Amino acid sequence: MAYLLYSFLLLGSGALLFFAPVCAICPETCDCQHAQHILCANRGLRAVPKAPQVERAGDVRVLGLAGNFIHNLSAFDFMRYGNLMRLNLQFNQIRNIHPKAFEKLSKLEELYLGNNLISAIQPGTLQSLKKLTILYSNNNEIKDIASESFSHLNGLVKLRLDGNSIEFLKESVFKGLPNLMFLHLESNQLGHIDRNAFSRLSKLQFLNLSDNKQTELRDIFMFSHLKSLTALLITGNQIRHIGNNVFQNLKKLTKLSLSHNKILKLDNDALKGLARVKEFEIDKNELTEILAGLLDPLERIEHLDFSDNHISRVDPRAFGHLSHLKTLKLKNNRLMNLSGGIFATNGVLFHVELNGNNWTCDCRMEKLKNWMTHAHSQGKLLTVFVRCYHPPVLAGKYLDYVSNSQLRNMSGYCESEPQPMESRGAVAETSILKEERDKREGEIHKRVGVQGDEGEQGVVTTFERKKRRKLVSSRPRPTAGKNGSLSDFSTTMSTFLTGHVHNHTNFASAQHEQFNLPLQDRAKHHNSRITMITDACQFNHHFILNVSVEDVTSSTAIVHWSTTPDVGLVHGKELLFRVLFDRFGHSFRFPRYVYTDGSDRVVTLQELRPDSTYITCVESVVDGAVCQVAPRDHCTGFVTLLPLVTSEVNLQLITVAALTANALLLLLVGVFWLGRVLKRRIRSRKSSAHGHVRHMYSTRHPFRSTVATTCVSSEFSGYQSGRQLAEEGDLIQFPGERFFDNSPARRDDDVIMLRYSD
């Protein structure tokens, strides 16, 4: 007995020794389901929890402290976590970091400091992190980066500094990062970048400079050392000019984005050296034309985006060397026509966006229409929307549904007009187009009432239009110059318009320009700077507002939230919302989620428990990714109501009662059916046992005369005989019961007697 007790105590002490270290190293309010992971996210902590003095505290590999209220990091907070590999401090309120806070974390590989209040990283703070590969310091308040802030981080691969207030990049700021591959600098205040700021980043593959204050790209040495770069994003700046040979050394670049700038012109050699670029975006700028040879360096380009510019002229040879082009976007510009053979050499082009332009459907568009029809018939081109803007007869119709004869009738001089003029856009207009413009301006004057009443203005407009038509018809036909231009015609028309339309210049020109501007251009002037959303964390921080819960019942609740007005400016990213709800205060957590479309701002939660406290949070899902830490600022709590006494219904009892009733009903039906079956079988046995006796008895009786038929059974009608009736016993029909007897001898005698009864 003593031996058994000793063994039991020994086993118990071993179990305690096995479980004690796991529990001992886990601070209160934290989760330590894994022996090497301590997770303390969203626990309301105001300081880094202290680890107990046990030997196994050094075995911790992951420490999560995100979503708390930590203000400072001291020199002793991580002294006992020497083997830590991942430290997450995002979404706190950290302002100061002691220079020796990370001194003992020599094995740390991932450090997340994003979404705090850090204003500077002192030199030497990160010096001991020799194995660090990922550093997040995004969405802080950093204004200046010291030259030695990132020194000795030879293993760093990804660095995020986006969402700060950095204004200047010095020459040697990144010199200690020879293996850096991903650098995020978007959403800062960068107005100047030293020409040697990226000189040591020979392995950099991704660089994002979007949403800054760059005004020009002229220095050919700025990107000259980035020979491994594959993606360069410079969207949302204030760039007006791109110089020659700026990108000439980016031999491996595959994506270049210059969207949301103010670029007026690209120099002839601005894109030189970009032979491997497959995607080029220069939409939402102020370009006015696409010249021949500008895009020739883009030998492997597949996707081009020139949308939302002011382009009115495209040279017929602009896309001639782009044999790999698949997608071309020219929507929302000021194009009036395109050359018919402009896409003749683009054999793999399948998607073209031309909507939102001021297309003039005349004979100059006939070849373009034929190309579209031929490409559609072969299944090589998706639907292209070219909607006629001029002349008024065809306004609103799509080019696909306009016949060639209609196009030819819209202008009579197209056959004699030189071919290069097909892409001139608004440079030279025919007399008929000017007549239509005058007609439209007259209608505008008539609606607004610039001169006199409506009747007088209508007479004046008609008179002037007839006068101009007469004067134009007396002028000689336009002829091309040496270079295919119409300078004489333009000069003549300018003189004519100057002399006869002087009274309408101030009003009609402004109205005409505004009338020709697409709606997207007008909106662009209203919002010149657009916030670029890069991830879900940034969206949660800037756009989600006013989370509330209404109409709470015993099992449902309605969650409302709102977003800032510029949430619609999130372009190119799929947006969803995820609503989390969970019972508050329970040790075992089982959070549930409801996903909604990006346009929804209300969700109904169901299957709640009565008299329970819930907490619900709203967060975004941008391009299928959520923020690593729950949005603490967008949560709210609520208590579900107890159900009324009159509405208390136990669904389980109702289900059991219904099933029981159905079972009893089926049982009764079965018993009734079985009884009838048994009864029928008994009757059939009785009839089969003496049926032949009744047959013999009925067929042996003599035929009765008509006098005696009233008292004779119908069974005797089948036998005819002339003999007289016997005694009255012959008319008696014996019931079937008389033939049932237990004695077989008696039964045989009865049969014999009946057979010879006659």
Automatic annotation (TrEMBL):
Residues 1-24 form the signal peptide. Keywords: Leucine-rich repeat, Membrane, Repeat, Signal, Transmembrane, Transmembrane helix. CDD domains: FN3 (cd00063). SUPFAM superfamilies: Fibronectin type III, L domain-like. InterPro entries: Dev_Immune_Receptor, FN3_dom, FN3_sf, Leu-rich_rpt, Leu-rich_rpt_typical-subtyp, LRR_dom_sf. The keyword Repeat applies. GO terms for cellular component: extracellular matrix; extracellular space. PANTHER family: SLIT RELATED LEUCINE-RICH REPEAT NEURONAL PROTEIN, TLR4 INTERACTOR WITH LEUCINE RICH REPEATS. This is TLR4 interactor with leucine rich repeats. It comes from Phoxinus phoxinus (Eurasian minnow).
